Amino acid sequence: MRYATKTYGPRRHTSVGACRDKFLYFFPEGFRDENYLAWERDYKWEAHRRWTTELGRDQLRALLDRGEFAAVAKAAVRIESRTNLLFSFEKMALRDAVASAEGARLFAVGLHDWLYGPGSEASKFDAWCATVAALPRRQTRVLTWPATTVFGFIARPKVHFFVKPMVTKAAAAACDLEFRYRSAPQSETYSDVLAMAATLRADLADLRPRDMIDIQSFLWVQGSDEYE
Q1: What does each C-alpha distance from 73 to 28, 96, 187 come to in angstroms?
Q2: Which of 206, 213, 227, 228 has its CA at a distance of 20 to 30 angstroms from the CA of residue 130?
Q3: Considering the entire predicted model, what is its pTM?
Q4: Of the candidates 167, 148, 151, 161, which has an alpha carbon nearest to the alpha carbon of residue 81?
Q5: Nearest Cα to 48, choosing from 195, 150, 148?
C-alpha cells in the first residue's frame, strides 16, 4: 500500500507555466537535455545504480541475516557521500550516528524495514523517522528532512522524494503548489510532498519525467539560488 494520492484544487496556470519556462530556459531539451543530465540527473541515477547493486532488496536481506549491520551502514553512507545531496555537516552526523555497533544495527534494520518491509508506506516512514531519532548523536542532530529522505530517494526513486525544506518550500510557492511544511519529519508532511510531486508530474507529462529524480530536479531549479 502506498500513500493515498491527493488532488489539490485549481492552481494559477501562469505559475506552473513560469516554472516550466524557467526550467526550459536552462535546459531547452527538458529532461533529456545534455546539460540537465550532466548537472542534475546522472549522478543521482548513478547513486541509485550503486545502491541497487550493493543494497537492493535481496542483498540487504542477506547482509542482515549474516548480522553485517556495519557493512550495510558503511555502504549506504558511502553511496550517498558520492553525491552532493546532503551538506557536509549532515554527512558527518550520519557517519557519527552509525559508527557504533548499536547505531549501525538500528540503522540497518530500520532501513530495510522502511524500504522493503511490510506495511503501509506512511507507517513505515514514521517508523523510520523514529529509528533515525534514536540513532546516537554527537553534536549535529540526525533527524532532519534531508537525512531522513535521502536514502529512500536513492534506493527507490520511482517512489520516494528527497526533501530539502527551504528549497522545496520556495519551489512549491513558485509553482503555486500546496506544501504544508512541518519541521519534524513525519508521514503527514511527507504524504503532502509525494502528492505535490504527483500533481507536478501530471502537469509536466509532455516533458516525460521518468521518476522522482526528474521531479526533484525540476523543483530544485525553481527553489535553489543556483538557478537565479
Answers
A1: 39, 11, 23
A2: 213
A3: 0.91
A4: 151
A5: 150
Helices 121-134 and 187-203, axial angle in degrees (round to 10): 130
Q: What is the mean pLDDT of residues 33-56?
A: 98
pLDDT 10s digits, 145-190: 999 999 999 999 999 999 999 999 999 999 988 888 999 999 999 9
pLDDT > 90? residue 13: no
Q: In 3D, which of 40, 71, 67, 58 has the Cα closest to residue 162?
A: 40
> Per 3-state DSSP, what percentage of the chain is helix, strand, and coil (rounded to 5)?
70, 0, 30
The residue assigned the cell 529522505 is: 149
Which amino acid belongs to residue 126? D
pLDDT at 68 over 70: yes
The helix or strand, by DSSP H or E, that contains position 94, with its residue range, turns out to be: helix 88-97
